[in-house]
Batch of 2 targets.
Target 1
Amino acid sequence: MANDDHLPGSEQPNRREFLWTAGTVAAGVFAAYSPANAATDAAAADAAMPAVEGAVPVTLRINGKDHSLRIDPRTTLLDCLRETVALTGTKKGCDHGQCGACTVHVNGRRVLSCLNFAVMHDGEEVTTIEGLGTPEAMHPMQEAFFTHDAYQCGYCTSGQIMSAVALLKEPCGAEDASVKELMSGNICRCGAYANIVAAIQQVRKRA
Amino acid sequence: MHTFEFIRPADQTAAIAAAAQSKTAQQGADVRFLGGGTTLIDLMKLNVETPARVLDINRLPLDKIEAASDGGLKVGAMVRNSDLAYHATVQRDYSVLSQAILQGASAQIRNMATVGGNLLQRTRCVYFRDTAMACNKREPSSGCPAITGHNRTLAILGASEHCIATNPSDMGVALAALEATIHIQGTKGSRAIAFGDFHLLPGNTPHRETVLEPGDLITHVTLPAPIVGSKQIYVKLRDRASYEFALASAAVVLTIANGKVTRARVAMGGVGTKPWRLPEAEAALTGKPANDATFRQAAEAALRNAKPQSENKFKIELAKRCLTYTLRTATAS
């Protein structure tokens, strides 16, 4: 697997690195919601939201910051994160619990944000990909995915990484087969599975 | 999705009182308990379930796994599937249950799904999930297009001319083999139901899937004291290696002494309209030598009454081989 261990920037710029850079720029668009900002910014943004008929109050602690929101009870945690709080790192794939793209952590455990109403999580702690690391200071799992080229289109990647980080704390055998079994809820349309397993195993071995 | 009123009852009594307002506890209930949401919210998005009130019971204190006074285990209805599967006592004394849960769904879904919710898991029949189609389970007397349509994954045991939907649970198959008891609190008090009596056969009322009445809340499930020295295996056969529903699965709890089967509990999944306990197979095993000939006879007995649909005749032989393999694996373990 020596070829997979190349470091970022060790080759000529390619499409992958361009996309990585582009992703960094995109993240900057939502800088107001990045972990580096004060809670007051988030609260101010939340209060400015238009009233919704039948909305109920809910407070979610997302990536370490409280967000007091008023939302339609039908709003899934996924839609709340993406549309209400504008944290678009969490992706909507199937929206029916079949693909894992929407995986986030609630109170430290990985769940599917598409099969939860946000109101169910009033007062609870939600962690999304934005809360894991930043382009400058990546979580070891984000770094390993990058190093191992563990994605192609990248759409499933945030869900894969959130699952993989949760897996580190779950009962999981040492062998690849155990990792594959515990990652089976995250579908990769591009088929980057081999590199995803390699990335996860690298982080587990270093832990 | 239809609008609904989101309510978080303060306690069990308030939850039961609020649920008792529903016209039915079966398909089409206008009040629903919300646990992990993995079935209910999915079906609400499809407009298969359209409750006017949703009662969030996630914060009721029903999330404990405790020793029962009779030496068994008491599992709260809100215990998450992953917590049950990884519980040390379950892994040691009821390993078939741990195996079954861990072969179901995905890690994320197991972190969400509850024991009570799993007992009420709905069929994956494509006609049930699609409101553009007729379905006797979803819309009584509208017809069953599955019987002449896509039925490859559907039931070969327990079906009726009105419904051939398979029960998709893995956990339920293990609970059937472990002879679990389901405990219910309702407006008239509490009652205990043997696992085999909880789910109903479709007959001519496929929209009625369980014995639950409005206001009934599953509070916990109990497992009898463990069978010392029993061999427990769950085997699941499916179209892909993981994160897929069973085409056929088997849970066995087997006790063998001097080369003979002295006690057998057998249930199968993926083949029946409910988690399918197999007393015929148990009788064919008990007192017989623990060998392939006995296991094949048990499998023949298990599937004797199987009736294939147009696309799933293969399931009969698949189920026989599944059970034979499971019994052989258990014996060798």
Target 2
Amino acid sequence: MSPEFEWQLIVAGTVLLLAATLVQLTALARRRDGYKPTAIIYAATATVFGIAIAGRWVREGQGPFMTMYEILLSSVFSLCLIFLVVSAAMAVARAGAFVVSPLLLMLCLWLVNESAAATPLPGSFDNPWLWAHVLSGKVFLGFCMAATALAVAMLLRGMLSAGRFARLDAAPEEAEQSIWTLFFVAFICHSFMLVAGSVWAHSAWGRYWSWDSLETWTLVTWLALGGLLHARATFKNMPAGLGHALVVGVFALAFLTFFGVPFLSIAPHKGLM
Amino acid sequence: MSRLLKKLASLRLTLVGMIALAVLAVVGSRNPDIGTGVTIWPIALLVFNLLAALLSNKVFRTQTGLLVFHVGMLLVFACIGLTVLTGYEGRVELVQGGAFDASQVTTMKQGSWHDHRLDDLEFFQKDVRVNYLPNFIRLDTNSTIQYRTAAGEIREATTGDQRTVNINGYEIAATFNKGFAVLLHWTAEDGREALGSVHFPSYPSFDWKQVTTWTTPAGQTVEIELELEEPVADIRHSWTLGRTDLPFEVQIGRSGNAVATARNGEFVALEGGTVRVEGLRMWMAYRISYLPYLSWLFVAAMLAIVGLAMHFGRRYVLPADSPMKPRVMEADVHVARV
């Protein structure tokens, strides 16, 4: 696949996510459930990005691991796909699509502004643990995003006039349960990401932990995930709204760790989530 | 005693420990004056808190997944402690044709319980081959060593990238740091001789600056520069670093501004003796580490994750108070009525 065609696919995916955002915002304003057209757009976006990743992979002879462009490309694909899967298994999670759509659109707009030039994967990085580390990281972020989107919907449900979130109004307990189920899966995946990352770092750089910025903030994110689950068990009367706000806070921390710290760090981990 | 145990097992204390660990991890990693060693205090607090909870909290008797996760976490802390206390990490440069010398190792980290056995290591540097893509992009590193196993057998292995060699528990790994060296034969005025190597800066990172200083056995410090007469690195094509049959000369700065040039086999007179250039070699930098509890740390971490998965299954997938149960009962009643 030529770089020009890859670029066209990315532009097409960005336009699709713009459409998904407009559909979701219109549905929210009109108090309608716009999930079906959104799901079709997500499926199309995942397909378009999947083709772009596969084509780039064949052309460059390596997976999308090295540059911020590749990380964003694979993240939009994986987040789209994971949200589709979660929404298929948990109907109540679809209420979060109005948060997911602009978030993915934002990542796409960032992506189109990044350089598409490839950086070869050094021999020392090419290890099955890199796969385990990256895949578990993507699944973590996907589940954390789904939990956060639903938490935002629950928070807004309490603030906005009734009827905007008919799906949540029908099953608020199920929505509450789903947020914490998704959050717990995110915690398991994050734990595995840390372990796989340490094994990979040991073979790639000769150390399993070195307190570089990304590692430190990943540990802080893990502590925030575990701490929130612990706090929920400790303070049984914690208001649901506070719990939802903290879920959003943990996702914000994870998002900044994934996409923000690689920019600030000068460590070898730079741009390598 | 039991009251103290319950206070120590407090879930609120766990939260305090986790917040303190997060804060000190960030502060310690960003501030070299403080260092990440400060994380030992919240970790110690969490260990005692966890131990007390495992002994006193009844929830662990009924929730196996939670118990497995917390035991796993305790083992993770134990393995990290043992790794820090018994571990060792050092760096050494070895010239092609040269043997490992424990006295040349620069220790980076050494646990207070580490049983220093570097003197027992025997290995010898053979060929070095590093493949590059255009634009100096390093592809694969291949550094061959010959070594003696603990059983006394002589073996040969190539290290680099993912491949390491384990000798008597020490892991030997070739790093990205390597370069050219010249062998120099020193003959003092009194006839005493010595053979050694001078390592030039890492190549190709410093291909523009192949110069270093060398102190002769007579105590004179001279500047010595390597001039390769054929291009080695190729920015446009793939190339391999490792050839030592290249034509070269060395320039040795003597007292004042005088510079002597010597090719392979030629002599240069210096204060207190003469030096003869004996040939071009490669040097390779190795990381030597001893981390006997690292695999146990991995096992403990995986155990904790399995515990989390078990707990997730019990709590979220098939909870004991699943809404499935009343539905089944209602169905039974319905059948009975029919």
